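Dataset card, provenance and construction

Sequences and ligand SMILES were collected as paired inputs. For each pair, a complete structure of the chain with the small molecule in place was predicted and serialized as structure tokens. The example below shows a pair involving NAP. Curators did not alter the output after generation; any descriptive sentences attached to a record were derived from the structure itself.
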Amino acid sequence: MMKAARFSHFGGPEVLEIVDLPDPHAGPGQIRVSVRAVGVNPTDWKLRRGLMGGELPQLTGRDVAGVVNAVGAGITDVRLGDRVFGFSDDGAGAAELALLSHYAPIPPSLGFAEAAALPVALETATRSLDALGVGTASGAGNTLLVNGATGGVGSAAVQLAVARGARVIGTASPANHAYLRSLGAEPVAYGPGLVARVRTLAPDGVDAALDVAGSGVLPELIELAGGPEQVVTITDFAGAQEHGVTFSRGDTGRAVHALAEIGELIEAGRFSLPVARTFPLAEIAQAHRLSEDGHVRGKLVLLVGRCGRGDGT
Ligand SMILES: NC(=O)c1ccc[n+]([C@@H]2O[C@H](COP(=O)([O-])OP(=O)(O)OC[C@H]3O[C@@H](n4cnc5c(N)ncnc54)[C@H](OP(=O)(O)O)[C@@H]3O)[C@@H](O)[C@H]2O)c1
């Protein structure tokens, strides 16, 4: 049996409980990982609150880092004991064991917590920048505005865009402006007057804009980028429909290749997704609460421990 976080009712963080469940078994194309760390994403609490549907009871957690302890048929690229990070196949990563089909080796300089911070933020940022053409030959995204630049996805998007050669302007609260500069972006405050503030830095506007925060600023982003085709949102579904902006979601064309590719930038010291705080798995409700407050710099990560598996954990 293994420990896993689960909820049997939709609701606040208090519905989360740690339960004993049977060990999952790796099917064809899957690996089973002894989980060491699990990244927390806003999707986790949106699912917990019932905002995204799903059946009950429901397990939780997408971002996983750990050690391979079983492989299914057809797996030839990893061996037992390898350190990997990736996506829990069924969104059930906040557990002692998880099944993964999309994974990559953990870059040598990263610990489990730092690796668990990466998958969702990295995949989403890569997919969004690709959709905007940032760094492509057309130069469409030479100057990029990121709204919500200091959370998980924003921090990743800023650094990836800088690595692609873009000039990046990012919105953040003033307390995060120094942090945003350290990522390579020029900070502006969010809130009323955004267009004028961005124009003081970029008088002709920007080439592309990515809305991560979903704070109702799509009209401003469209104005600054010169049209809805140059804007992508990952959060504001209704606004995207209303303003003709692309809504990018994980179930279409996932950029999972980003996991295997990021090691080079990390080892070169050009990409780092800070772990703002870690929590033991038993304190998952507290981590959800903090994520739900909406002002985490970088990522929150749950630490999972397990003894006696015979795989070094
Ligand atoms: N469609 C997809 O494929 C997809 C994938 C992943 C995530 N998402 C969604 O994308 C959103 C962001 O995810 P995330 O992991 O980056 O979240 P996160 O880490 O929780 O984001 C926190 C950040 O949001 C910033 N923020 C808060 N209010 C803001 C505002 N009004 N304007 C600008 N920035 C603001 C905060 O900056 P300050 O502290 O400086 O205020 C903080 O750094 C979530 O809604 C998530 O569900 C969608």
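Derived descriptions for this record:
The pocket of NAP is lined by residues 41-43, 46, 120-121, 124, 147-148, 150-154, 171-173, 176, 190, 212-215, 234-235, 248-250, 291, 294-297 (CB under 6 Å).
Residues 209 and 231 are 5 Å apart (CA to CA).
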